[in-house]
Structures are given as structure tokens and as C-alpha cells.
Amino acid sequence: MFNKSDIISLNCPLTKETEYIINRQTINKMKKGVMLINTGRGKLINTSHLIEGLKSGRIGSAGLDVYEEESKFFYEDLSDRVLTDDILARLLTFNNVIITSHQGFFTKEALYNIAETTMENIQSFIDAKTLKNEVCYKCP
Fold first, then answer.
1. Three-state DSSP class for residue 124
2. Known catalytic residue: 58?
3. What band does 82 get if pLDDT is binned at 50, 70 and 90?
């Protein structure tokens, strides 16, 4: 897939299997000039390796809605401070990279759905029903 795709879009969750799915080895398999989009999770991409791919031209452009260390930079106004993350600062210098803060869940519809699901979970818990959204860390 890597060597045939013009555009690679990551829309998957972060798991042990997907962490740094985009790394030096997978980037070297990509078609020269590929467009890489990540709307999933920041740690799907090894950012240092992404920068290498951008510098070499293997990656022609990148659109990032997520960043590995985004919680340190994207959820409050830091415009009056010096950017201390050298990797993010380097990414911002590329004219073929767009970075947005991961805000897709801030739509009216998404917030409504989050609230509705939360209320359903609370009601199921109160009623001693099976929690359909329960995350089980120690399941058999």
C-alpha cells in the first residue's frame, strides 16, 4: 500500500499495534511525494521521522490535525510565549505542512452526542444494566 498510494490518511485509534505506524521504515516504502494526513492520534506518526521524510521529499506534504505532544500546546493561548518544542517548531517551518489543533469534537453535534452517550451510561449504571460503552482493562 505504501509504495502505491498518492495520499495516506490515518484515521485510526492509538493502540500498541498502531503506535508509530508511520516511522522511518514505513516512510522509506512510500511513493515519493506522498501526501500524509493524520486525523487520528499524534503518536501514529514518529514526528522526527516525518521531518526526515519531508526534508528528503519522500513526503510531499502533510496535514496534521494531531501532534504527539499536542496537549502541551494546543488547548490554551500560548501566543505570548516562546515555543520550546523544537520538533513542533521545525514542523511549522515547512510550507507544505498544515497543522491544526485536534478540535473535531467541538461541533454542536459532537458535543450533543457526547453528552447523550454520557447520560445513557449514567442511567445504565444507576439501573444496574450492562454498560455498552464500558472499557474493560482486566477482561479475561
1. helix
2. no
3. low
Q: Which residue of the set 41, 68, 81, 90 is catalytic? A: 41
Per-residue pLDDT band at 127 (split at 50, 70, 90): very high
Cα-based distances in Å from 131 to 21, 22, 112, 113, 126: 31, 34, 19, 17, 10
CA distance 76 to 126: 36
Are the CB atoms for 55 and 27 separated by under 8 Å?
Answer: no
Instruction: Give residue 129's pLDDT.
Output: 92
Q: Is the predicted pLDDT of residue 15 greater than 60, yes or no?
A: yes
Known catalytic residue at 41: yes
Q: Are 54 and 64 in contact (CB under 8 A)?
A: no
Q: How many CB atoms lie within 10 A of CB 8?
A: 19
Give a three-class secondary structure readout of 105-121.
HHCHHHHHHHHHHHHHH
**Which one of 17, 69, 70, 90 is the catalytic residue?**
70
| Residue 31 to residue 12: CA distance in whole angstroms | 21
Is the pTM value of this prediction over 0.85?
A: no
